[in-house]
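Researcher: Please translate sequence to structure tokens.
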Amino acid sequence: MARDFLFEALEPLGGQSTRVRFTGTVGRSSVVWDARVMTLRHHCRSLTPPERQAGVRQFLAVGPIIDSTASVTVALNLSQIDKSAVLKTMIMLRQWKRLRPGRHEYGDAHRFGALDCA
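Model: Translation complete:
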């Protein structure tokens, strides 16, 4: 576990996926975000071939708030998840004023073939 001034990395940075914790708010509630941040390429590995062909958009999926902890999964169109990607994710989550539990997709759809997800 690595600690940064702004977040706690629960898994190493610099790969296709990581897990971090940081503080923020949802509505008017203070929370600890438990975030899984991954590349779209990493996410596409969990999809079926037809889902890959249909296209995948960047997304964040916010879970319910339990004991002041909010879980979120974020998939970004990046080659790796490094400190910069984590900091930008934190800013996005902290500034999204009407963020509610559920899946929120944004950006253009990206198509991945079987070999692209390897």
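Researcher: Any highlights?
Model: The chain has one domain: 2-117.
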